[in-house]
Design brief:
Length: about 160
């Protein structure tokens, strides 16, 4: 009696192989989605932080320009400085409201205060005089309101133009 030889010539994958490969593919896709989601959240945080730092830098640049090109300092306190504008004889007051965290400039006694920095971002503002006619400004910006470890401290000095 002879043995019957059966040949399987059909090529392809079995159902078990297909199910295993689909399961592995699903795991890889889920892992990739999680990583992409974390990366997009991190990117959004960095963009927000950069925007806040840019606002802080623009604010301090505006203040330095105002003081540098003034006719001179009239008086200063820890949270405000009064100076005479170069183009005007009226005094301009730069003041920081500790309760609201808002930095404003008011030109002349009857001028409307203009907000330079909105409340919440500026946590500290201080004016000191180092030597005659050289003033230091220290500011602390909290560009992430929920994280005090991300405070940005900026200190700079300026000398009014008339004393150069």
């Amino acid at each position: 009696m002879g043995w019957i030889k059966i040949r399987y010539s059909e090529k392809g994958f079995t159902l078990v192989e297909l199910l295993i490969s689909l399961a592995i593919l699903g795991i890889v896709v889920l892992a990739s989605t999680g990583v992409l989601h974390m990366a997009s959240q991190s990117n959004q945080t960095v963009i927000t932080d950069i925007s806040q730092v840019k606002q802080a830098r623009e604010a301090i640049d505006a203040i330095m320009d105002e003081i540098h090109y003034s006719r001179g300092i009239v008086k200063y306190t820890k949270t405000s400085i009064t100076y005479t504008d170069f183009n005007d004889t009226a005094n301009t007051v730069l003041s920081y409201n500790t309760a609201t965290g808002t930095l404003t400039v008011q030109r002349g006694a009857s001028g409307t205060p203009i907000t330079i920095v909105n409340g919440g971002i500026l946590k500290n503002f201080a004016v000191t005089q180092n030597v005659t006619n050289i003033y230091s400004f220290s500011m602390t910006f909290r560009y992430n309101p929920n994280d005090a470890t991300k405070d940005l401290n900026i200190t700079t000095t300026v000398k009014p133009f008339t004393y150069l």
